[in-house]
Amino acid sequence: MTKLANVLIGLLLLCVACKNSEEKVTPNGFKFQVIKAGDGVKPKPGQLLIFEYIMKDSKDSVWQDTYENGFPGVFPIQDSSTIATEIGALQMFRMLSKADSVTLTRPAKEFFKDVLGGPMPPQVDSSRNITINIKVVDILDQQKFPAFQAELYAKRKGFQKAKDAKQIEKYLADKKITAQQDTSGIRYVIHTNNGGQKPTPTSCVEVSYEGKFLKDEKTFDKNPKMTFSLNQVIPGWKQSIPMLGVGDSATFYIPSHLAYGPQGYPGAIPPNAILIFDVKLFGTGETFDPETKTCK
């Protein structure tokens, strides 16, 4: 079957789904489309609605995709006394059931107000529409959520590790970089090796560094000189910096599970981001002195 035939079949199925969709309206007039109906059992107060979602704008820029990055959304169902003051999206969640698939599209300003519950940030293009596609994966009592979360984390951690390894391997191949690999999955290139004293995973270190995203090589943080304990940093640094001796420099390619993981660092690091760090080690000591901000 040709690629064109596959595309046409996909479009046909999408059109059929759209024709069979059902528009629903919340008590405050918020409209959404049910593309596929689930079991019809709505959540009760005190339960948690677990959902995957893909959010993108009208220029096909994906803002968030929980299937690929991060964990599902979780919405706690409140008692009925809060319904009157809830925004449209929150009222919508009360109307969903397990395996429901729904979609909605709003102009950016309305989307932030009625779906995300806040003002539109000034950097967002107000001329764009934003679409979110939601699938309810489960409805749980709160006491069952920790076990669900642990199981899902274990599954996705293995998937993400394999995905990160492939992305790092491709990046290195495309850039024609020859890098070594340690047992944790960190890839690295040692630029200088002067035989100086090496820190332990619990030492204090003084370094310069620049941090970039593997995805687009944009710098998210840099510092010409910083002192800290390796007990206070991401696992990737705790494992990689002890490879260096004083005076050495290297580039480290840190997979996301050894960086900020599926939660990311709000406002700075997106979920499941692979990071590149250029690091030089200036000094090391047993402990960090908070008064002088030096290693002792």
UniProtKB/TrEMBL annotation:
Superkingdom of the organism of origin: Bacteria
Catalytic function, reaction form: [protein]-peptidylproline (omega=180) = [protein]-peptidylproline (omega=0)
Keywords assigned by UniProt, alphabetized: Isomerase, Rotamase
EC numbers, comma separated: 5.2.1.8
Pfam families for the chain: FKBP_C
Enzyme class: isomerase
Coiled-coil features, chain-numbered ranges: none
InterPro entries: PPIase_dom_sf (IPR046357), PPIase_FKBP_dom (IPR001179)
GO molecular function terms attached to this record: peptidyl-prolyl cis-trans isomerase activity
PPIase FKBP-type domain location: 202-285
UniProt family annotation: Belongs to the FKBP-type PPIase family.
Name of the protein this chain belongs to: Peptidyl-prolyl cis-trans isomerase
Organism: Ohtaekwangia koreensis
